[in-house]
Each structure stands twice: as structure tokens, then as C-alpha cells.
């Protein structure tokens, strides 16, 4: 599996391009602020053809460039329904008015938006991506897991970072819910699972299990991701 990424814009949000190999189809994860040029550079370098944009959640720093990226390549965007309204109303995720957000910045939905569900397996670009609903940072936060040789790779969005977790003090955030999501989505995974987060460096589940202060007191749990 080929994974290429870069921190986009002033938020340094990690945008990832994922494909089975160079010269193949690919998916784009979380094209944030001013991500279009970086995405196009990766596509050229590895001779990739995008088939979809998939979003871990609807915050502006993760969806800023989704409409232009989808429009340029005529591909759909996938997002959880609980965050879909943030695609066209990004100010809602920050508790401000549109006029207060970056000088009145407005965004619009891509032409083709498809909704994610907990436990779904997306078969895109020759990849199998398992969707886990993981509310807490936002109501519609999700993670994506993909097998890579004998390990799993998890794109955690703003659920889990190296040494930390996503903030829960913005509208729609819920600290109790994010802890339950960590217990259900992250802790049951093998230690060698590679975590590619929405911000900062990559890590592993094993490293976070023993060193992340938000995970050290949690026990793995099972159950649906909805209803928190």
C-alpha cells in the first residue's frame, strides 16, 4: 500500500493520499486548507487516479479543499451524516457566524456527497477501508482502517494523536463520548496497529496504550458507536 501525506495550511492538518501502489487508483483523506496543490503534486509524482475523497469529520481544517478537489477530478466525497452540515456551514463547528470566520469564508458541498455508516467497508481504489464511527471530537467523527501486509493502518482523524486526543470544547464536542470512542475503536486493536492522525506524527496503538494519559486508564469496550 502506498500512503503519501503532507500537513496542509495554517492548521497543519494531515492530508493523506492512499493507493495499492504507484500508478493505481487512490483515495484522498481530509484535504484541508490550501491542500489542492499538494494533492495534485502527489498524484503526478505517483501517477495516481483519485476515485473518492473520504473525510474523518467535518471541521473546516479537514474539509476546506474538498469541493475543489472533488470538482477537479469529478469524484464523490464521503462523510458521516452527523457532520454533513459542516460542509456548507463551517462556522457551525467553531461556534461563530460565517461573517466571523476567515472574513466571511463560505464553502459548499461537492456535487456528489455520500454518507458513511458505522462498520461499513468501503471498497475503493482496490482498497478495503473499514469505517468506525467515533464521536466525541465531533458528532460525526470516524476513523478508517485498512490492512497492510500483516498489520493494520488506522487513519484516526482527530480522535487520537501521538500523546493526546482531539479537543472536545468546540460545538458538538463531548469528552465522555471521545473516551468511549477510544475504548471501543482504539483499545481493542493490536499494539502494532499504525495510527496516522489528523495532526502531528504517526504513532502506534501500543505506544499510545502505555504512554497516552487519556488512554492509560481506559479498558477496551464493544458496542455501537452511535447514541453517545
From TrEMBL:
Keyword hit for Zinc: yes
Keywords carried by this UniProt record: Hydrolase, Metal-binding, Zinc
Cofactor: Zn(2+)
SUPFAM superfamilies given in the database record: Metallo-hydrolase/oxidoreductase (SSF56281)
Pfam families: Lactamase_B
Ranges where the Metallo-beta-lactamase domain occurs: 12-199
Name under which the protein is recorded: MBL fold metallo-hydrolase
